[in-house]
Amino acid sequence: MVMPLFHFSPAKHSTGKLPKPRTFDMLNVNNYFDGKVASIGLQTSTLPATVGVMDIGEYQFGTQQHEVMTIISGELCVKLPGHDLWQDFKAGDSFEIAENANFSVKVRIQTAYFCTYEDK
Q1: Which of 17, 19, 86, 100 has a CA 20 to 30 Å removed from the CA of 10?
Q2: Where are the domains positioned within the chain?
Q3: Class of the CATH-defined domain 2-118
């Protein structure tokens, strides 16, 4: 199942039901993949964004907007759209995903990320 990382592009998660985000003040909190991926949506001064965490596992995500993901802590092994090889990204590294694309990640250690979204 492909999951968006951002609340404003809702999708069904592994139970087949639409996720029901809990809102605390102005933040959108989302859990996916049986709680193994969590994100908090926010509006930065320029772009919508999420900050989140991923537990050890393999996940596939879909985009509805252009995304730039920066690893805060940990590392991801990522298979980007249009690539045959997996690429490693560590804390401080960033990668981009075009809108309406799918990408896969392998998480070997718990990882935190920051992701921004924009229309291109």
Answers
A1: 86
A2: 2-118
A3: mainly beta
- Tens-digit pLDDT profile for residues 37-66: 999 999 899 999 999 999 999 999 999 999
Does this model's pTM top 0.85? My answer is: no
CA dihedral sign, ordered 84, 81, 2, 76: positive
Name the strand (E) or helix (H) holding 29. Answer: strand 27-32
Locate 21 and state its tokens: 């985000």
Backbone angles phi, psi at 36, to 5 degrees: -85, -15
Q: 88-92: which pairs have CB atoms within 8 A and are 24 or more residues apart?
A: none
Length of the chain: 120
